[in-house]
Amino acid sequence: MGWSLALCAAGACGVESARERPVVLVTTGVAGAATAGTGGAEGAGAGGLAQGGGGVGGALPDAGADAPEDAAPDAPKDAAPDAPKDAAPPVVTATRYPYGARHSPLTTSIVTRLKAVRAKGAGRADVFAKVGDSITVNPGFLACFAKTDVNLGAHAALAPTVAFFKQTPAAAAATSFDRVTLAAVVGWSVSKAAGGSPSPIEQEVAAIDPAYAVVMLGTNDTYEQGVAILDRYLRLGVDQLLAAGVVPLLSTIPPRGDKADANRLVPEMNAVVRAVAEERGVPMMDYWQTLAALPEYGLSADGVHPQVYVSGGARPCWLTDAALSEGVNQRNLITLEALDRARRVIGGAGASDPEPPSLDGQGTHASPFVVDQLPFVHHGDTKSDGQAGWGVYSCSAADEGGREVLYRFTLAAPRRVSARVFSSDGADVDVHLLSAADPGACVARDDRHVEADLAAGTHYLAVDTFSAASGPQAGPYRVTIVPVE
Questions:
Q1: Contacts of 292 (CB under 8 A, 6+ apart)
Q2: N- or C-end of the chain: fewer Cβ atoms within 10 A?
Q3: Residue 254 DSSP symbol
């Protein structure tokens, strides 16, 4: 596949193969075998279309090798993340981030809020921070834009953005492009970047006073318990940045070609990234999507790290058609695009994007939210959303005495589906998979994760509030529904 950047001694090199995971449109079935709270890592391809056929995203083959140095080991099944407090009161937004776009929409409402975030901070408009793991530490990621070996190819419109962020040193003699960040280290889990007081994210912000932060975390958390860890700590890191007046630019993660089980979790990890970005109303770039159509996913031979384009030497900042066959170059392009959008629209007077269609339904028994595509993400709050009335389900004796929010989805063909719920701010909500809009039709229930083989047809998912001795434990939640391959 060519030559990868020589950071291999630090564990930050290149990757492997991938087929496109198409978005599945769903219409508005009957359940088969189900498992709740499964500890196995099952990856998601796309489910079948109710109309027009269906596509299935292929899972990467098991490379048959041990994970590279920075890949996180499998966690024991009883592992649980710490419970850090949010750095700032959460601000929840209503704009949806549909699958299929390279970048999340910068709508008028989102831009207005992010301009306000910027206004309360002391960050310099032409400085950005980098947050991540070895894929960010990789010297091919952005650093070359501070030098002269740059070929933008057909993307010359990004030249003003390169010049803008190159004009001011982030610290000492380094620009934002080539600064060695305090918030990215080989082998890091998301908890390493956002944990601690001050966290490395907060330390980097204090060191360089940025306006923006490019964030990609989760590759080293691709094990079953890591999905919840990513939700918890990515939210914490995002809130730390927002509290400091810094706009996060989140990114989905690439495939894992080294371990089939890890790769099967990547779509679920990326659903978490999308759900957190959508809830907090911060920009998100879909790096996974840029790799999906590339030969071998644009990854190097270790199946973890993106590969750099080589033509008489490494050319990470070439954005020609040939160079964009590799993952490092693709990440540099999509990150430049995100920075360009931030500079022009959030930092300037550039035009905002149109508001995407809102979700149909009200989340009630009579009018469930209609899941219009799989994978699917949504966020809500059981203090106000949905309705109360279903206290006990046929698959559990737990007291779900608070409000429940109901979702409806339809499969055109049999699929295995994974649904997760993540609660925060003291809430305790549970997830229930139903074959009908009735608590007596419960197929599977868990406090975090249910997975089941479903027949073609209409199914329901209820996010319900657990009731303790002190009363219903209502509050904010994020829900993801991902087809499993």
A1: 18, 19, 20, 21
A2: N
A3: P
**Residue-by-residue DSSP string for 357-408:** PPPSS-SSSSS-EE--EESEEEEEETTTSSEE----BTTB-----SEEEEEE
- Please name which of 410, 394, 409, 390 lies closest in space to residue 464, comparing C-alpha atoms: 390
Enter the pTM of the model. 0.84
- pLDDT by residue for the chain (485 residues), tens digit each? 333 333 332 333 333 233 233 333 333 333 334 444 333 322 333 332 232 222 222 222 223 333 344 444 443 333 434 444 444 445 667 899 999 999 999 999 999 999 999 999 989 999 999 999 999 999 999 999 999 999 999 999 999 999 999 999 999 889 999 999 999 999 999 999 999 999 999 999 999 999 999 999 999 999 999 999 999 999 999 999 999 999 999 999 999 988 999 999 999 999 999 999 999 999 999 999 999 889 889 999 999 999 999 999 999 999 999 999 999 999 999 999 999 999 999 999 999 999 999 999 999 999 999 999 999 999 999 999 999 999 999 999 999 999 999 999 999 999 999 999 999 889 999 999 999 999 999 999 999 999 999 999 999 999 999 999 999 999 999 999 999 98
Which residue has tokens 């959303």?
Answer: 385
Q: Looking at domain 369-484, does it have CATH number 3.40.50.2300?
A: no
Angle (CA) 153-155-324 rounded to 5° is: 60
Cβ-based neighbours of 221, under 8 Å, separated by 6 or more: 72, 189, 190, 227, 229, 230, 269
Fold equal for 108-346 and 369-484: no
Domain boundaries, the chain: 108-346, 369-484
Contacts of 268 (CB under 8 A, 6+ apart): 43, 44, 227, 418, 420, 480, 482
Task: Give the angle subtended at the CA of 277 by the CAs of 273 and 283, to the nearest 5°.
Answer: 115
| 3 state SS of 479 | strand
Q: What is the CATH number of domain 108-346?
A: 3.40.50.1110
Partnered with residue 454 across adjacent β-strands are 31, 415
